């Protein structure tokens, strides 16, 4: 993970930097509000990436933000295995991600599919989520 | 109270603006972290002031920050009456603020006095606070 | 709504104050992180209450926190009408709140019921929620 | 301004709601992190809008989020007058917003123009901003 | 320490997860507000635990939250040695934690004892704290 | 980096601690808002320092704050090389920091110089920044 603490980059510039980092292959980008010296509201930028993308992402961070130095750390990970499958809802097909870890099983409908179905059908995002999850229930898939 | 939501002012500039606003008579200035559109970390600036200082403070806000418009609202207040008196501590004299409101009484040592005493005596800020509060106890002033 | 900005009350004290305010009838209590002068992380306390409870809640705020003054403001409200009914889930009965506003209808299972059912059955909170919402679907209640 | 405090709406849903609110004519939408009862991280949703859009936006808020009630408040405003004009930069034309308020004059390049120019030219957003602002300097427009 | 960044778990669910994690032996659980992609307010969950509890706590995180992967990191610690003793206050007995580290000594009254005494005596939490700390002063324990 | 999570230190005390840590050689000090158990708003204190200053800074943290234990971690760094030079602006001389990293070059005017010039000349901080940056442009230094 790449970290930088910023007190002189604007929100507009940070929004642009996030967009560039995601396009360039960052797995995740987030901002955390930070109180810095001299009463400055700052932001901690965190970027999660494959080691092989590190140099390319550092270039974006150094070019777009005002930071003069970043910290880079590694950590162990614990991840659930995942598989995607599709369910039919009254609002159209939605892919659902099914995740496993040592007996824990859970399912979550794909955001982009739900978003499109909700806009197309004129219903709430929540209505599509519930429909998609109800399908997985009926088909008995949460009981392993 | 004057409010402005900012997504393109840097932390450095906001720290400078706070300093200017306080010098110009603002009673209180604060920042709140804000999530704004296009993934921009922003800041809500809030300034509490006497009505008569409003114009002067607006000028600082418009000059120093990027905001193009602010909102101004009024509200009722409920305040405790206050009086200052001085107590002697092992670290030197410290003023203590005593506040009343319908049977509630509380005392708080003045920050700047405690800060100076702590630096002078090489003890923690907390040690000075406790000493000052202990004086008020001994003198029986929390029981009204 | 009652507001106070605090820079010298501890988190422990604020947690205690929230507990006291809720016991005394506050409808809602929240904290917002705030950047205050002299590099102080502060907290904005907000309390929503019936006008008739205001005096009692002010007393708690003045007694438990360090604030010397609060602001009080009123605002218009727009609310959904609500009714509670009960559904049966594989994890036991759960009350579901059904809310209406000009054609919008939505349902949300009661947190405390779901919490108890989840603990009793040894399943996740989410599993109980989904079960309760699935019941409302089957019974056709989201379509008005 | 419309306010709602939310402790059971997901970040995904809030991102979707912001998108819908902006499409439907909200002038500004923001989120503030909130600490709510029972150790719940919540979010305060704030929407600024023309009075005439209020009903339409309330419908989105009630449909997409879990809130059962919102508060609506009005406030005075102080705004700078604005005018847009275009400057030429080495990276292409950029519109610059010029704002006035009682002797204060400031200029800010339009974000979307700078973003497009930066992407097209392969330079940083900051480089385009500086170029655009330098044009306004050379032409003497900050001195009124 | 176990970290997870969440953008689709509700505050209600996070409050429940914190409760479960503490019951299962987590030494500390905290949430940090996070700005995530697509304008999503998110939360970073951090859990501090004994290595031997890691598997059990991961199961709770994977079961109760929506996360599909967490990061785990270790760090050196520097800790003060502690001892508990009891003091008598006008509001009843209160245990005080006394901590040492290379010449630094400090004392802090136990929150749960103070809370109970304050509720029983009908005084503020702060009044009990001050009383307990005043006892330690009188007995000369802050001077080593 | 030294980390501590605090739920019973006041904002006033934290502002004082930041001041002491910076005087004692900390390279950077920041606070992050944290949601801790029992509904407590807390603060994560982070201190970046040379390894040789660690002991001295730990003493300040243990003396001034309520923490009983901190975590210490190391990380790789990626830094830009820097050089300072001076430019002349209509508001007086300002030093500008020029930073390099593998083809990326950027310049940022020194905050303290800009602050002093702005106060002296009665113009906005932004006006001085822009002037200083315009000088670096004219002299062609951003093109390498
Ligand atoms: Ni990959
Ligand atoms: Ni998702
Ligand atoms: Ni006055
Ligand atoms: Ni104070
Ligand atoms: Ni009522
Ligand atoms: Ni709820
Ligand atoms: Ni309009
Ligand atoms: Ni802008
Ligand atoms: Ni242990
Ligand atoms: Ni404690
Ligand atoms: Ni050095
Ligand atoms: Ni700087």
Description:
Six copies of one chain form a homohexamer. Chain A is α+β, with helices and mostly antiparallel strands and 144 residues long. Chain A folds into two domains: 2-72, Transcriptional regulatory protein pf0864 domain like (Alpha-Beta Plaits), CATH 3.30.70.1380; 81-138, no CATH class. In chain A, 34% of the residues lie in helices and 39% in strands. Chain A has four helices and eight strands, in the order βαββαβββββαα. Chain A has helices at residues 11-23, 54-64, 111-121, 125-138; strands at residues 2-6, 28-36, 40-48, 69-72, 76-79, 81-89, 92-101, 104-109. In chain A, the strands form two sheets. In chain A, strands 2-3-1-4 form a four-stranded antiparallel β-sheet. In chain A, strand 6 and strand 7 form a beta hairpin. In chain A, helix 1 (11-23) runs antiparallel to helix 2 (54-64) and helix 3 packs across helix 4. Residues 138-144 of chain A have low confidence and may be disordered. Strand 2 of chain A pairs antiparallel with strand 2 of chain F, so a sheet runs across the interface. Bound molecules: nickel (II) ion (12 copies). One nickel (II) ion binds at residues 108, 111 of chain F. Chains A, B, C, D, E, F: This is LarC family nickel insertion protein. Chains A, B, C, D, E, F: Pfam families: Ni_insertion. Chains A, B, C, D, E, F: Keywords: Lyase, Nickel. Chains A, B, C, D, E, F: It comes from Anoxynatronum buryatiense. Chains A, B, C, D, E, F: InterPro entries: Ni_insertion.
